[in-house]
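User: Can you help me understand a structure? I only have the sequence.
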Amino acid sequence: MKKRDDFAWLPLNSLRAFAVFHGTGSVGAAAHALRVTHGAVSQHLRGLEDRLQRRLFVRTGNRLVMLPEAEQLADNLLGHFRAIAADLNQFRREDNILNVTVTPHVAQHWLLPRLDDLIRRHPEIDLRINADAAVHDLVQGDFDAAIRYGDGNWPGLNCERLFEGWDVVVAAPSILEQVSIQAPRDLTRLPWILDEDRDIEMSRWFDDHGLDQQAHSRITRLPSALTLAAALDGHGVAWLPHVYAAPYLSSGRLVRLFSDDRWAAQCRHHYYLCWADSKNGPCLRAFRQWIMRQLAG
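Assistant: Let's start by predicting it. Here is the structure, written out as tokens:
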């Protein structure tokens, strides 16, 4: 009988293959994830059964299927391996590295124009920015914080509201020169640029203002990152988050066509800075304080 604190007997490679097989669902996917051969994973799984002297799988055709009690063991192992990976990742990282994931629009139109100020005020922070719209795991994953768009309800995370999420209808002055815009229905005479990721919200705006979306002279759907650029270039009317449009409204490169406080009041989604308690280190606290100073003006 091995002592409870004797780890030398643990078949770590086999246990890792067993957990990854459970997480991926097949021997081939586990082999790809572990960067080993299909045969190596199969050998580890057979070896684990021999070591434990217990059956863990049944074969169904060409598929290997875990027994229920083996699935419970694999679930526990996956959790433990992820915790170990998180501990090691924090240990190996330098304290001054801050990994932040943000939406592409926030990265391009809010964060990047202010990076010089962040670097000047906090040269000690080595900021790593990931710009995509995916919702990453901030508890177990590599990212320390995220700027997300939503309702602020992400269980297990601290969420601090940054920007209001309400939208404005805007256009470049050049496309308004030949058309008089007095009411929302006049917009049907102009080309439109729609964010393909927010088509449902835009349809609601059309319906709420009694407009037939199909009656517009031309509608072009673009990815989120291109919508603002297309509006600035004068390709059409756009429906944009106010936080992105605000600098261009101030400079006159865009014109706000309607002031709709009632529509803004209905908005339930905003931009939040999110982080897990375990990631709230000195760099993240400095980053949060810097953001709040920027928002305060």
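Now, to help you interpret it: The chain has a mean pLDDT of 84. The first helix runs from residue 12 to 24. Let me know which part you'd like to focus on.
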